[in-house]
Amino acid sequence: MILFIHRKDLRTDDLPAFDAICSAQENSLHVLILEPFLLRNERYLEHSGLNFLQHVSSLQQEYAYKGKLLHILYGEPDAILRSLAGVHPIHEVRVHADYTPYALKRDRLLRDTAHALSLRFHTHHDSMLCDLEDFMDWCGRSEPFKVFTPFYRRWRSFLSERFRPPYSRGLQELQTVEIHPQITDTFRIPGEINRLLTALAQPAQTMRPCHLLVDFLQTELQHYAAHRDNYSQEGTSRLSRHLNTGAISVRTVYNRLTENEHLGEEWLRQLAWRDFYLYQARLDPVFFNYENMYDLSALGTHNFEAWSLGKTGIPVIDAAMRQLNETGWMPNRLRMITAMFLTKNLGCPFIYGERYFRLKLSDYDNTLNRGGWLWSSSLGYDASPYFRVMNPVTQSQTHDPSGSYIRTWMPELSELSDQAIHLPRADAIVDLKRSRALAIELYKEILSSKGAASQE
Ligand code: FAD
């Protein structure tokens, strides 16, 4: 019997591990483990945790609809594996890889546990459009690409030549087995989380990512390049939360894109940024440790709360933070503007914003979120230069001239004219010009401190 553990692959089609299990022609036991660490700080009550639970709930429905069995457990994966192996004739474990520091540590432990129990342990790559090893081999490189544009050119050619279409064998072919009741008893889901799973099960039909994709490709893609930054309109795909939980595979997305009448080069570039960050997380040894590589001690956190509550007195920033807090969503351009404002104008270390987004974004992804925060705070590969500080007022005037986004999220300002609505309020917590000049000096110094902090 093969044990399959779901992670960021909350779907039932196009899964490399399912393809392998089909070939083995064996029974399989399918579990999804709610890991306490990933739901810590009551994350399950925030947009990011709720999005995850909603996808778990949909997955459960999908299994039931196809007449297959999925068992949801709560606990530490290695302890669960030991218990499962004690009561089921498992001889092999299959999972899809995850590359964050927590996931790598968890999987080392899981692999060691499997080997101690004399079980085989297989990891499949699934989350990237181009598998990292294949891509690097094909490029003949051992060093990572540090600049996006040359990376994109090679990545694009690799895809044209080597794209591996979605896997066609799936859950329908598998014989899933019932779990021993002793296991469900021992690793029972806490009541509050279980109630949420049940409550979130209702609207599952409304969030089919494939429909969202097809709809986007048919109606919005052709205008994407022109509309993507006009954040008062719905010009982007909104697929991120489905891609990050794995509810839709990036292979399926690309496959559909290539069948589409309009190829959408600009949209493909965004999918390339996704792979670019996922590669960095594996190739840049300090990707998850930049906060300790630089001396950030000159930065302060006293303005963080005003930023997080949308009370800075800069209308576009406050509107964006209100949208985030209320809905779990913020368009990409506003993520850049609010992140730069926090790290540069307000001089706050990026990790504060990163942690806040971790709870609030419904499409939160550890790697992509860190990539976005590193870029905005001029750290990491191909980041925004330290002297680039987006002015939120001019950004707002350029991308939403009539201020309709601000009017939606800050109705108290809706009576203002198209000119006045973008301007800082009398009680703004910071002077944009002065704070910009200060930020440039500060970040110049921070970037020259590389290594100093890590040696201390
Ligand atoms: P579309 O514009 O339709 O793009 C299609 C897909 O391409 C997206 O779903 C996403 O997978 C990928 N993509 C688009 N833009 C980017 C980008 N700049 N970097 C990497 N991949 C991209 N994205 C997340 O998925 N999770 C996060 O936690 C996250 N945090 C961010 C934090 C900051 C500070 C910044 C600046 C960006 C962050 N992003 C994050 C990237 C980007 O904002 C979102 O991927 C995008 O807004 C999702 O909207 P969409 O699905 O409509 O994208």
From TrEMBL:
Cofactors required: FAD
Protein name, per record: Deoxyribodipyrimidine photo-lyase
Similarity field: Belongs to the DNA photolyase family.
PANTHER family: CRYPTOCHROME, CRYPTOCHROME CIRCADIAN CLOCK 5 ISOFORM X1
Keywords from the named record: Chromophore, FAD, Flavoprotein
InterPro entries, sorted: Crypto/Photolyase_FAD-like_sf (IPR036134), Crypto/Photolyase_N_sf (IPR036155), Cryptochr/Photolyase_FAD-bd (IPR005101), Cryptochrome/DNA_photolyase_1 (IPR002081), DNA_photolyase_1_CS_C (IPR018394), DNA_photolyase_N (IPR006050), Rossmann-like_a/b/a_fold (IPR014729)
Record-annotated membrane-spanning stretches: none
Coiled-coil regions listed: none
Domain of life (superkingdom): Bacteria
Domain Photolyase/cryptochrome alpha/beta, first and last residues per copy: 1-129
Species assigned in the record: Paenibacillus phytohabitans
